[in-house]
Design a protein that fits this description.
Elements: H1 3-8, H2 12-36, E1 39-46, H3 68-81, E2 84-88, H4 97-100, H5 105-114, E3 118-120, H6 130-139, E4 144-145, E5 149-150, E6 158-163, E7 166-174, H7 178-181, E8 191-192, H8 195-206, E9 212-218, H9 221-230, E10 236-239, E11 250-252, E12 255-259, E13 266-275, E14 278-288, H10 298-315, E15 318-322, H11 337-350, E16 354-358, E17 369-372, H12 373-379, E18 385-392, H13 393-403, E19 415-418, E20 420-424, E21 434-439, E22 442-443, E23 449-455, H14 456-459, H15 466-469, H16 481-484, E24 490-498, H17 499-510, E25 512-513, E26 521-523
Length: 525
């Protein structure tokens, strides 16, 4: 019998039930087929922008890279192709003059115009102090994350976004070493909890509320890999902090790990294929950014030009010339001519026996040719000043040991020095790497006191230099290092003059410079 035959013998009520059931079946089938369809969600990401709004030629390259107006245009175009999220993995508001002169206000205005969906704090977001950071967060038209930061109420631990029916949770964490990588006064009263423990806690909370869990991380590539190994349930880690150029996605277990280099020189693209709320495929790559006339994002261009004019008005003064490239890109791994120059200025200004400065204080290079104030301010973007204290030979050795203890990681603690030379063996265990140390050409005497110039950041124990920090009173008042160092140890302190201004004055006096690597730091096997 067919349906038509039976239909003649059904009552009107029964006919209504049949029709309703038939429609319900169609609806269920329709929903099932729709839910079974694959969806591609695009994750666009950048990290460690550091305010580099304009294109530049990196040291050792002949090609101009970067330019946020071109990156903004590329991000907009890629967003139109697929449902997308635009993420920042931190260190956005501090670094280049375009950001620093406005304490990051220019960057937040730009990010708002680019319609960022979310950002995690980087350690350098704290460099202008907590009050400025709170203001920047309040200006942002997107959430700012910091799940492992305690004491800063403007932060969110995570967000959940629904993209094409897929629930995506994003947890943000920053390195717990932040108190060592910014001035201690900038993080007073804050606590930075271990990222892995924090992420594990929130993954457990969110796994029933979200289909996909992304960790937006500013802890570095090595730490990202360890996080993926240690904590289950993370689908994607979008990283920053280590400035790592990951050309294609890396997988650690079931976790996809990506990072997009630095300074807006690349835009990260990760396409996730999702079916039934689960990732079934992924494809990641970097879109390297180069300036192409006519390919600018107009809104971004207007913001960049507005602040650029203000920067140029202040910092366009020529102070001298260099006959050689000044290397600020290798200062975390070896002695460079720019590292020698900065350390020499510190020792000369303070009259100290030796100078030790962390390579991380030097942020970029200067190409051969004219040197302008803005170039020096880009090299030395932090508002640090010179301090000199008395340390024993034993303490100097301890400081140098700490300086070379994380060379494998490219840590900012690697020292640039003046007035001394030393050899070290990276194959030895930490704490036993430094070998011969000479001061003024003579072997270091462990019990003898020497005057050591550094910056106020290291003097307060920054970058983990506890040997300097131990000279600071336990009061915790770091507003003026000169008043905090024990009186008998203090030799020089001038908080009224920034180190970068001292370097500018040195070059202005010399007019032309051509510093060479002096062989002060030698690696031995």
């Amino acid at each position: 019998m067919n349906f038509s035959y039976h239909h003649r013998y059904l009552s009107k009520g029964s006919q209504g039930v049949v029709v309703a059931l038939f429609c319900l079946c169609l609806l269920v089938l329709s929903f099932s087929f729709a839910h079974a369809e694959e969806t591609v969600i695009r994750i666009l990401h950048i990290n460690d922008f550091h305010g580099f709004a304009e294109p530049y030629i990196p040291l050792g390259s002949k090609e101009m890279l970067g330019g946020i107006v071109y990156l903004a245009a590329k991000a907009d175009a890629l967003r139109k192709e697929k449902p997308a999220l635009l993420l920042s993995a931190g260190d956005m508001i501090q670094g280049n003059n375009w950001a620093n002169l406005f304490q990051g206000e220019s960057v937040i205005e730009l990010m708002n115009a680019m319609k960022f969906d979310v950002m995690v704090l980087g350690n350098h977001e704290f460099d202008f102090g907590q009050e400025v950071l709170k203001k920047r967060i309040s200006e942002a038209r997107f959430p700012v994350l910091g799940a492992n930061v305690r004491g800063l109420d403007k932060l969110k631990p995570f967000i959940i976004r629904n993209i094409s029916g897929v629930r995506i949770a994003i947890i943000g964490v920053v390195t717990e070493d932040t108190p060592e990588t910014t001035h201690p006064r900038n993080v007073a009263g804050l606590k930075f909890e271990p990222p892995a423990e924090t992420v594990e806690k929130y993954v457990k909370e969110l796994k029933q509320k979200a289909d996909i869990i992304i960790v937006l991380s500013h802890i570095g590539y090595s730490a990202d890999r360890m996080l993926a190994e240690k904590v289950g349930g993370i689908d994607v880690i979008v990283g920053g902090h280590s400035h790592t150029k990951i050309e294609r996605q890396v997988t650690v277990g079931k976790t996809v790990v990506v990072q997009a280099w630095e300074h807006g020189k690349a835009l990260g693209v990760l396409d996730l294929t999702v079916k039934d709320g689960k990732i079934t495929g992924f494809e990641g790559h970097l879109e390297e950014i180069r300036p192409v006339r006519g390919a600018e994002d107009r809104a971004a261009l207007a913001i960049v030009e507005k602040y650029k004019q203000k920067v140029d008005a202040v910092l366009n003064e020529k102070v001298g010339e260099t006959e050689v490239d000044l290397d600020g890109e290798n200062v975390r791994r070896k002695e460079t001519n720019l590292g020698d120059l900065v350390a020499d200025v510190m020792r000369q200004v303070s009259g100290a026996d030796v100078a030790i400065v962390n390579g991380g204080a030097i942020r970029t290079s200067i190409k051969k040719g004219e040197i302008r104030i803005k170039d020096i301010y880009s090299v030395l973007p932090f508002n640090n000043y010179i301090v000199a204290i008395r340390l024993t030979g034993k303490q100097i050795r301890e400081a140098l040991e700490h300086g070379v203890s994380a060379i494998e990681e490219g840590s900012g603690r690697f020292p640039q020095v003046s007035g001394l030379s030393f050899t070290y063996s990276p194959s030895e265990k930490e704490g036993s790497r430094v070998k011969e140390i000479l001061i003024a050409g003579k072997p270091l005497e462990p019990e003898k006191e020497y005057t050591v110039a550094t910056n106020d950041f290291l003097a307060a124990g920054g970058d983990g230099y506890k040997v300097f920090g131990d000279a600071i009173r336990s009061s915790g008042d770091f507003s003026n290092i000169g008043s905090a160092i024990k009186g008998e140890k203090l030799v020089y302190s001038d908080s009224s003059r920034w180190l970068k201004d001292g370097v500018a004055e040195y070059i202005r006096t010399k007019k032309t410079i051509a510093p060479e690597v002096k062989g002060r730091i030698k690696e031995i096997r």
